Automatic annotation (TrEMBL):
Listed GO MF terms: serine-type endopeptidase activity
Domain annotation PDZ: ranges: 387-470
A Pfam family matched in the record: Trypsin_2
Keyword Protein transport in record: no
Protein name per Swiss-Prot or TrEMBL: Serine protease
PANTHER family given in the database record: PEPTIDASE S12, PROTEASE DO-LIKE 8, CHLOROPLASTIC
Length: 482
């Protein structure tokens, strides 16, 4: 055997068998060698011990002794009587008679006595009710019935009718229109924009105009009043936003720039605020106000798409071609907007709407495709003042007829013929020369040559750059008058 395991699990030394005989109790000691129990505490002995002189009293009852005195006969249990409400708590649940017997309401003869009869209030309300309360309840019932009858009569009388009175709950205006909003600008500009009606015999037309002076001067397009300018019997009527109609007379026209001034006799008209077109930049917000297709005071919004856009259009009934440096905008402009106002974000006049580029139509009434053109207000005021002062306007002129070098190109304006004795002839400009610059402005086509010359005053000496036989050179030209 392994000595380590023998030392751990083996018998101790001196033990021969399975039981240890080394520690046997001492027979001389009555407790078998165990220590004696300590004495009982005096307090416990006094509380639970026998009282003095009661050593022979046995406290525990013998078996079968209940402690009750002996009786002659055993007493029946409480639940043995049917009239007793108690029952054997160890018995199972059974259906039996009531715990407390009902009182017998039979009379001496064995017949049941009838109970008291219930009154109507007791039947309806379950208890007695005072007469005054019953009367009040009756009055309320009559009133409710009468009201229901009236409502039924009203519904029945109006049930077959499709017409009636409509009551609409109106709310306070909650729309905020801050200063400078489109609504605010339109509200300020619209009273100064008029609708112009022209009647000549059985024909006529409609356009727009803008009041620029308190004396009743209105600027518009020449093509709006051209029919009346040729017919002395024609009538021109200006219609204001409040419906006021006033006869108008032509003060003067400028077919070359498509401008005209008319005058009405009204007291204290609303005059538009005049801005500066030179301050505009592409991307600025603009608003067009006019009467497209006769729809008075129509407001549209857009931006400045381009500036200094030379445009040209045929003249009216033999008039010279219309050419001017335009403000291009994508604000919707349609026939009837002609002569109306183009205003900036402050509501100041920056242009007079004049023409649009559109797709062709059989009746010539094509609509807006986002290419509208307005005459800059700086040019409008200058020409209008001349028309009001003298009834006519003069423009600077070079004295040549030119055409674009090639369609839809920007190679310059080629001289087709030179007016004898005119400014160009005196400066040595010849037929076939290509003009590429007038003053500081580049000339890309024939229309831009016209507007570049009109930017100057009559009598100004302007350098004109030419290309002749591929050789560029510059000549000075003293501008004349048309």
């Amino acid at each position: 055997m392994d000595p380590a395991q023998a030392a751990t699990f083996g018998r101790p030394r001196g033990v021969e068998g399975a039981f240890d005989r080394l520690h046997t109790p001492d027979p001389a000691r009555g407790n078998g060698g165990l220590p004696s129990a300590p004495p009982t505490p005096e307090s416990l002995a006094e509380a639970f011990g026998r009282p003095p002189g009661a050593n022979d009293i046995v406290l525990q009852r013998p078996d079968g002794d209940t402690g009750a005195p002996a009786a002659a006969e055993p007493e029946e249990p409480l639940w043995s009587s049917e009239g007793d409400p108690w029952r054997d708590p160890g018995a199972g649940a059974v259906l039996g008679g009531p715990a407390v017997p009902a009182e017998d309401d039979r009379d001496k003869d064995g017949e049941r006595q009838p109970g008291p009869l219930l009154s109507l209030p007791e039947v309806l309300f379950g208890r007695r009710v005072k007469p005054t309360a019953l009367a009040l309840l009756g009055v309320v019932a009559l009133l409710v019935g009468a009201a229901g009858g009236l409502v039924g009569w009203a519904v029945a009388s109006a049930g077959d009718s499709l017409t009636g009175e409509l009551n609409i709950a109106e709310a306070e205006a909650g729309k905020e229109r801050p200063a400078g909003s489109i609504a605010d600008i339109a509200n300020r500009v619209a009273p100064a924009v008029v609708s112009i009606e022209v009647k000549s015999g059985q024909s006529g037309g409609v356009g727009s105009g803008v009041v620029i002076d308190r004396q009743g001067y209105i600027v518009t397009n020449n093509h709006v009043v051209a029919q009346a300018a040729r017919d002395e019997q024609a009538e021109i009527t200006a219609v204001f936003i409040d419906g006021t109609r006033s006869r108008a007379q032509i003060v003067g026209t400028d077919p070359k720039t498509d401008l005209a001034v008319i005058k009405v006799n009204v007291s204290n008209p609303v005059v538009i605020e005049v801005g500066k077109s030179a301050d505009l930049a592409p991307g600025d917000s603009v608003i067009a106000v006019g009467s497209p297709f006769g729809l008075e005071n129509t407001v549209t919004e857009g931006i400045v798409s381009a500036l200094n856009r030379p445009v040209t259009a045929p003249g009216e009934n033999g008039d010279p071609a219309v050419t001017y440096d335009a403000i291009q905008t994508d604000a919707a402009i349609n026939p009837g907007n002609s002569g109306g106002a183009l205003v900036d974000s402050r509501g100041a006049l920056v242009g007079i709407n004049s023409m649009i580029r559109t797709v062709g139509s059989n009746d010539g009434e094509g609509g807006s495709i986002g290419l509208g053109f307005a005459i800059p207000v700086d040019q409008v005021i200058k020409i209008s003042e001349a028309l009001i002062r003298t009834g006519e306007v003069k423009h600077a002129e070079l004295g040549v007829n030119a055409s674009s070098v090639a369609a839809n190109t920007s190679e310059g304006a080629q001289v087709q013929n030179v007016v004898g004795g005119g400014p160009a002839a005196k400066a040595g400009i010849a037929e076939g020369d290509v003009i590429t610059k007038v003053g500081d402005r580049q000339v890309r086509n024939a229309a831009e040559l016209t507007v570049a010359v009109r930017e100057h005053d009559i009598g100004d000496v302007v350098p004109v750059r030419l290309v002749r036989d591929g050789r560029p050179f510059t000549v000075d030209v003293t501008l004349g008058s048309d």
